[in-house]
Amino acid sequence: xxxxxxxxxxxxxxxxxxxxxxxxxxxxxxxxxxxxxxxxxxxxxxxxxxxxxxxxxxxxxxxxxxxxxxxxxxxxxxxxxxxxxxxxxxxxxxxxx
Length: 97
Known about the structure:
The protein is globular and about 35 Å long. Strands 3-2-5-6 form a four-stranded antiparallel beta sheet. It is 21% helix and 36% strand. The chain is built from two helices and seven strands, in the order H-E-E-E-E-E-E-H-E. It is α+β, with helices and mostly antiparallel strands. It has helices at 2-17, 83-86, and strands at residues 20-27, 38-41, 47-49, 55-59, 68-72, 79-82, 91-96. Strand 2 (38-41) and strand 3 form a beta hairpin. The longest helix is centred in the first third of the chain and has 16 residues, at 2-17. Mean pLDDT is 84; it is low at 8-16.
């Protein structure tokens, strides 16, 4: 029983402290998802590409919170925000102009 409680405690602590963020990139003008946008952290080897529905999941647990997260796709203005501000919300909807 102690092993089960310890395992449950570790799982809960890991989930609580993880900084895996999910979200959707949306075109502000058309209100449609933006496919294949680059989502990454400046000066670090952390990044993902949105799927065909504009969805992404990125693990920012090892990212420096003072660095900026950047979302770029051709034809839109880039979106930038500090990692610290970005992780404050679990589910993100990013609107690109």
